Amino acid sequence: MRYDLVIFDNDGVLVDSESISNRILAAYLTELGHPTSYEDSIRDYMGSAMHRIHELVLERSGRRLPSDFDATFHGRVFDAFRQELRPVAGVSDVLEKLRADGVPYCVASSGSHERIRVALRTTGLYDLFGEDHIFSSEDVGRGKPAPDLFLHAAERMGVAPERCAVVEDSPLGVQAAVAAGMDVYGYTAMTPAAKLAAARDRFVHMAELRGLLTSTHK
């Protein structure tokens, strides 16, 4: 393994949540008078911190989302997670192999700390991380595509950015990892590979990831 730390995004990489959360987000925005399709939500908001949703809606409509938007949205998402959420296929094996190899890993997500924990506990992945290996955009001033979250995670884990690999499935996340000076591997199960073209490499099945992390090819 040529990396000293592997940083995982959460939604869509560890847990199969993007279809659930974007379905709910599109429906809620439409309900509030901002017509949004599922495809619109994936295109515009996948990988975003909540503040970016507020900023885009205000920019496009001139209207602010209600003050309880975040709480209502998360309440609906958590209810759906508890019924529907599953881990991404093969990711438990990846984490267990990294642990067996002695390679540190963590999660750095645009989601809130509460959202990350609900997702990891619901899918049985929480015990593979623990409190000290979970980082949220709430910890920094700017979410993805700014590099702040990944740099914060690396600093807290005691690893130089150039010794980190990031696993991401959104263009915003790939952009953030590149800006942080880290190698990034794009997971293309839901995202067209062309949208993750800035990644060092791309893969569609989690079983491929360990080989990419250990390969020395450019």
What does this structure look like?
The protein has 218 residues and is of the alpha/beta class. It contains nine helices and six strands. The protein has a six-stranded parallel sheet, sandwiched between helices. Strand 4, helix 8 and strand 5 form a beta-alpha-beta unit. Helix 1 crosses helix 2, helix 1 runs antiparallel to helix 4 and helix 4 runs parallel beside helix 6. The longest helix is centred in the middle third of the chain and has 16 residues. The radius of gyration is 17 Å and the shape is globular. The two termini are 15 Å apart. The model has no long low-confidence stretch (mean pLDDT 95).
Task: Give descriptors for this structure.
six-stranded parallel sheet; 218 residues; 9 helices; globular; alpha/beta
Main sheet overview: 6 strands, parallel
Strand elements, count: 6
Global morphology: globular
Please write the string of helix (H) and strand (E) elements: EHHHHHEHEHEHEEH
* Fraction of residues in β-strands: 5-15%
Secondary structure blueprint with pairings:
Elements: E1 5-8, H1 18-31, H2 38-45, H3 50-61, H4 69-84, H5 91-101, E2 105-109, H6 113-122, E3 134-136, H7 148-157, E4 164-168, H8 171-179, E5 183-187, E6 201-203, H9 209-214
Parallel strand pairs: 1-2, 1-4, 2-3, 4-5, 5-6
Helix pairs in contact: 1-2, 1-4, 4-6
How would you summarize what this structure contains?
This protein has 218 residues and is an alpha/beta fold. 44% of the residues lie in helices and 11% in strands.
